[in-house]
Design brief:
about 425 residues, alpha+beta, Immunoglobulin-like, 5 domains, 5 helices, 30 strands, binds 2-acetamido-2-deoxy-beta-D-glucopyranose, B-cell receptor CD22-like, transmembrane helix, Ig_sub2
Length: about 425
């Protein structure tokens, strides 16, 4: 009995041993792996084969159809076809593979195949690679966010084993953790938010753009060229306001003594091309978008006296007067110039109708009473004197007047003479 039992046990042991021996051929991998898109992933792998054999070739295939015959994404006997796959293993028992920058098309089944000097083996069914995106879930869906809303952003990834998230606003790190939360969101929270996995910083981050909308704020009126303008000139009142989305409608109001008047037009600019006197007054504007309205403070437009037409006329008058004055001045000046150049001119002129006379110059200080003919001639000069009607009387005055006056000097240097009685003239040089 005992012997029989012992035999049975030994038989079982041998059977077990034979089973172990028959399963010498093996490839061990995780059946499912999750890769974060954009990052690299290692597929851990080990393999066994009957003792005494030598591994000659190792390869990895993507997609079941290629498991046996290839093409392979990696094969030790051929040149690598891409840098995307890197064999980390060896030709003993390690068959790990690294995939760089995982994309969606890298998802699917992978299998390891190897050849020994006697046989070959494929690690069927291999490993299923699941490629997962980092995604941000927005608590309010894709609805418009307005100031004051409660908003929660949650970062998710299909790969459960990655859960250490880092949040960024416009590329700058802000906080760590699976979610972001605002219980009264403000316009300054607008921006681009992204999350990434701390352990896989190179993974493609999840991104969401937060645009917090709000009604008009800080509505104000400005005036160009200013709030004090001349009647008839152009003035532009501009209403500006901060709003998201931008202001859709502008309404202009004028405050008159007893009531409020809505001014025509719905543009941001209120233009008076030729500002009339009655444009004067107090104005404000109201800016509106879909979230609300906001009134500006009141500005006061003052229109002062002159019409532009008046200014034009006055300016024209000033120009005319100036031109006249300049003309008169020029005329006077040219006359003076003419007088001065007269003598020179006369020298050049042909003294056709001039009469030349010999003239006795008496001694200075001698009285006219003295008989000139009796006096010895000291000097003879030639003079030409041009008399017009007016100067004739002057000449007569000169006969009796003092010979030292300026006028007599002038006469002595000037002129032609048509009619001459030399005895009646005293010419001094
Ligand atoms: C295989 O080799 C890689 C790289 O040398 C190593 O990181 C990995 O731990 C090894 N795997 C096994 C199962 O030995
Ligand atoms: C990949 O992971 C996602 C999320 O965990 C799952 O829904 C999907 O079925 C997986 N795909 C494969 C091929 O296993
Ligand atoms: C939200 O914030 C604004 C200012 O940012 C404040 O005026 C308002 O009272 C806040 N609302 C709540 C409900 O806290
Ligand atoms: C955003 O605005 C709120 C009030 O509206 C203020 O308390 C907060 O400091 C602002 N944040 C930034 C980053 O400016
Ligand atoms: C947010 O992203 C959009 C589109 O990618 C870009 O146009 C915008 O300038 C970004 N905003 C900021 C504040 O970086
Ligand atoms: C209002 O607008 C003016 C000019 O656009 C700006 O200087 C000022 O800082 C704004 N004030 C606020 C509270 O936004
Ligand atoms: C602004 O006024 C014009 C005509 O005056 C009108 O056609 C237009 O619809 C108005 N726009 C808005 C936003 O009210
Ligand atoms: C702006 O002023 C008008 C006229 O006084 C008024 O009817 C309106 O309610 C005001 N709007 C706001 C937002 O104060």
């Amino acid at each position: 009995m005992m012997a029989e039992h012992t035999h049975l046990i030994w038989t079982l042991v041998l059977l077990l041993l034979s089973d172990v021996i028959s399963s010498d051929w093996d490839v061990h991998v995780e059946p499912v792996l999750c890769a974060v898109k954009g990052s690299s992933i290692d597929i851990p792998c080990s393999f066994t084969y009957p003792v005494g054999q030598t591994v000659k070739n190792v390869a990895w295939a993507h997609h079941e159809a290629a498991f046996v015959k290839g093409p392979f994404v990696f094969e030790s006997t051929s040149e690598p076809t891409s840098t995307k796959f890197q064999y980390l293993g060896d030709k003993l028992h390690n068959c790990s593979l690294r995939i760089y920058k995982v994309e969606n098309r890298d998802a699917g089944d992978y299998a390891f195949r190897f050849w020994t000097d006697r046989d070959r083996w494929t690690g069927y069914p291999g490993v299923n690679l699941n490629v997962s995106d980092l995604k941000i879930i927005q608590s309010n869906g894709n609805k418009v966010i307005t100031e004051g809303d409660n908003v929660k952003l949650t970062c998710i990834i299909g790969c459960k084993d990655h859960s250490h998230f880092q949040w960024y606003k416009n590329g700058h790190p802000i906080i760590e953790g699976p979610s972001l939360y605002w219980n009264n969101i403000s316009s300054n929270n607008s921006g681009n938010y992204s999350c990434s996995i701390k352990t896989h910083p190179q993974a493609t981050p999840g991104v969401v753009s937060i645009n917090v909308e709000y009604g008009p704020k800080n509505t104000s009126v400005s005036a160009e060229p200013g709030l004090e303008v001349y009647r008839g000139s152009k003035v532009t009142l501009t209403c500006s306001s901060d709003a998201n989305p931008p202001v859709e409608t502008f309404t202009w109001f004028k405050i008159t003594s007893d009531h409020l008047v809505k001014v025509a037009g719905n543009k941001s600019e209120l233009v008076f091309w030729e500002c009339p006197q009655d444009a004067e007054g107090r104005y404000f504007c109201c800016a509106t978008n879909k979230h609300g309205s906001k009134n500006s403070s009141v500005v006061e437009l003052t229109v002062t006296g002159f019409l532009v037409r008046d200014i034009v006329i006055i300016s024209a008058a000033v120009v005319v007067v100036t031109v006249l004055l300049i003309g008169i001045a020029a005329l006077t000046f040219s006359r003076k110039l003419k007088t001065l150049s007269c003598a020179a001119e006369n020298e050049q002129n042909s003294p056709k109708d001039a009469v030349y006379v010999n003239w006795h110059v008496s001694d200075i200080g001698q009285s006219q009473e003295r008989d000139k003919r009796e006096q010895p001639v000291k000097q003879i000069i030639y003079a030409t004197i041009d008399f017009n009607n007016k100067t004739k009387t002057n000449m007569q005055q000169q006969q009796t007047g003092s010979g030292t006056s300026d006028e007599s000097v002038t006469y002595s240097t000037v002129c032609r003479i048509k009619m001459l009685n030399p005895h009646e003239l005293e010419i001094q040089s």
